[in-house]
Amino acid sequence: VHDHITGDCVCQNPGYGLLHMNGQLTCQPPCEWSKGLVHNNDGDCVCNNPAYELLKIDGKQKCKPPCSQEAGLVHNHEGDCICKNPAYELLKINGKQQCKPPCSHEAGLAHDQTTGDCVCLDSGYELLSMNGQQACKPPCEGSRGLVRGAGGGCICSDATYELLSINGEQICKPPCPHGAGLVHNSEGVCACKDPDYELLLINGEQQCKPPCSEAGLVHDQTTGDCVCSNSGYELVHMNGQQTCKPPCEGSRGL
Questions:
Q1: Dist. CA 67–CA 63, nearest whole Å
Q2: By CB distance 3.0 to 4.6 Å, which of 75, 158, 185, 233 could disulfide with 244?
Q3: Burial letters 74-88, b for 16+ CB under 10 A, else e
Q4: Rounded to an integer, what distance in angstroms lies between the CA atom of residue 176 and that of residue 193?
Q5: pLDDT tens-place values along the chain, 254 residues long
């Protein structure tokens, strides 16, 4: 329509913008600069920043930074970048947004700040894959005779050894034969279960035997039993106690 004051052509809708397109005047809806919009040569609203994407949010056009599909991102209804997979977590890695699978804190995992991959929260732990799930476990020290078992825990590399916990650390030790009265002490060494007994080496094997406390008694080197240190003496049981006495010669009527 003509402007009543100047006679120039103006838009009938005062909210529209008057554009010159291909040598002709035309009226187009306004492009909101605050939303990053400008008119292109065809009179349409486009993004002022060509790297941005033109979205329709709540019925209005708006320009937003692109969401990297390679990083698993899509625009939500507000135009922000979110993870396409709602179970994933949105991270900022090296200044860029990326979606990564969650890392279970219960399993001791956290996201690496440079790669976004799940790593062990405790850098001294080892990252394992168990039944399709990642988990962090303490290392199995070979110097302590340990290897990783099928269940993820530490086991003894020698199946005949016993896994002990000494001062809060796991270690493998040779078994202590319970039949010989032996158990592991606090240091993992075989000791007598009965503290009053003595630990002996008999025929190359450890055994616990009652002490030979009475005078004249010693342990036999082959059986561990109490015998007389004087081979000519006799071992006699008196009042529940063992003792050694000189022999009573029958030839003398004794």
A1: 12
A2: 233
A3: ebeeebebbbeeeeb
A4: 10
A5: 888 888 888 888 887 877 777 777 888 888 888 888 888 877 888 999 999 999 988 888 899 999 999 999 999 999 999 999 999 999 999 999 999 999 999 889 999 989 999 999 999 999 998 888 899 999 999 999 999 998 889 999 999 999 999 998 999 999 999 999 999 999 999 999 999 999 999 988 899 999 997 778 999 988 889 999 998 999 888 887 888 889 987 776 66
CA distance 179 to 76: 71
Q: Where are the domains of the chain?
A: 1-66, 212-254
From residue 91, alpha-carbon distances to 3, 50, 95 in Å are: 56, 25, 9
Which amino acid is located at 25 in the chain? L
CA distance 212 to 228: 10
Which distant-in-sequence residues (6+ apart) come within 8 Å of 145 by Cβ?
Answer: 156, 157, 158, 161, 171, 172, 173
Round to whole Å and give the CA distance between 194 and 209.
9
Which residues, in sequence order, are bridge partners of residue 104? none
d(CA 133, CA 141): 23
What tokens were used for 67? 């969401």
Rounded to whole angstroms, how far apart are CA atoms 206 and 125?
38
How would you classify the pairing of strands 17-21 and 24-28? Answer: antiparallel
